[in-house]
Every structure is written in C-alpha cells, then in structure tokens.
C-alpha cells in the first residue's frame, strides 16, 4: 500500500527572510473501519499500512482474542460510501473472521463514534470498559535488562523510523528482545495507540503472544492505554522517551510491569519494578 505519505505545497515563513514556497511530505491519515463478520466494531484514524496487524492487535488489546488461531481471515471489503473514483474499495474497511467458538466482542468494546489518531480510548461506552482484564500476567516474568542495553533502544528506534524521516509526523513503537537487545519489529503511525496495536498484531501473527522477556519502546509519552495494551499482550516492560501519566504508573505498579520514562541519553526514570534493571533489588 502506497498511501503512507502525501505531497503538498507549503509556504515556509522565517522572520527576516522572504517567504518560500516548496513541496513537502505529510503523513497520510485515513479512517479504518474494523468489522467482525461484517458487523462494524470500531473506526480508528490511522496511517495506512500493516492494517491487518492493526486490526488483530486492536482485538488483542480489547481482550477479544489472545491467540493467532482465533483469526480465520481478514480482508478488505467495499466501503458503501466510496466514490466511483475509488471503484468501491478504498481499503479503509477491514472485515475480520473469527474462528468458531471465539466469543464475539461484547457491546462494551464497541465505540460510539470515531476514535481519533491521538486517543485510543475516545468513544468508549463507559469508563468501566477502559479497565480491560488481561489473561496474561507479567508480575512473575523473569526479564532482566541492563540499563546500558535499555539506553540504546531510543536511538535504535529513531534510526529505523523511515517514514518519520520524510514527514516528521509519526509516532513509533518497537518490540525488543530484552536478553539480546535485538529489535524484533517497529511500526509507525499517526496515532501512538495504533503504532502499539500494529506491534501487538505482529507479535500475535508471529506466535509471540504473550511477549515474555520483551520490552515495548514508544517514541512519546506512556499513557494509561499504552500500559494496558502492553499488559494485554503480556509485555513485562514499557519504556518511553517522555513522561508517563499518573494512571499509567499506577496500573504498571499494580500489575507488576516495569515502567520507564524519560529514557534519553544515559538516564531514565523508573516508576515501577526497578529490580528488572538493577543487579540487586532495592
């Protein structure tokens, strides 16, 4: 799929200089409607690409599925409101078929309206639906990562952000093997939560759920929803280059997840379970 960036003519204004008009590249943002057996479930604003990973990662995050064999098929289908110029299929509607015996999503999962690219929780029917219960636990995960290894992750993540280099407008999420420090996968998107769902979707289709011994690295802040998505995928450590929210830190501590913020250069702030980064427990 080529609809990842778009060209647009812009005018750059700098004080003391003549205005300059030039072409620029922007990150694409389009809606993706996720359906289950033909029934609309949710709409999220995303950067096109890795849509199947996004859809199945979303289903993992929402507690609908936990294994790859629960997904029989995922296919694009016609958008009933598509224009003739799009020949009836804009690749913005994805229908997922679940295996027999897999319970259909509860009404609590359904969004009442569009989910924006900045908030994966907007549209929840009730605040209680936010607290999804994971079938995986991370408290006993034996993951240990040296601080020296962890400090390399932000540079590795940034170096792999190919679309960000062209647009400057995408978030990124990556999954690292905690023992070797190897980057297993990286995904970019206009939405933080979408980037994480794409990573989770990759993990599911690669038979790596629960993602034991892994670290989820994100390019922005660590919100409650990102901690929750990591927990739903069985990821024992979440690291972010920016700050976590109070609720994110609370959820991580309650769940036994290691939460790291302000991971920049040689320093970091650990908000829960620092023992996974220290030679001896405090």
Please tell me about this protein's structure:
By secondary structure, this protein is α/β, with parallel strands linked by helices. It has two domains: 30-130, Ubiquitin-like (UB roll), CATH 3.10.20.10; 147-276, Cytidine Deaminase, domain 2 (3-Layer(aba) Sandwich). Helix content is 22%, strand content 28%. The protein has seven helices and twelve strands. The protein has helices at 51-61, 147-150, 153-159, 162-167, 192-205, 224-232, 246-255, and strands spanning 5-12, 20-27, 30-36, 39-46, 71-76, 93-98, 171-177, 183-189, 214-218, 237-240, 258-264, 267-272. The protein has a six-stranded mixed β-sheet, with helices on both faces. It has a four-stranded mixed β-sheet with strand order 4-3-6-5, with helices on one face.
Highlighted features:
single chain, 28% strand, 12 strands, 282 residues, six-stranded mixed beta sheet, 7 helices, Ubiquitin-like (UB roll), Cytidine Deaminase, domain 2, alpha/beta, four-stranded mixed beta sheet
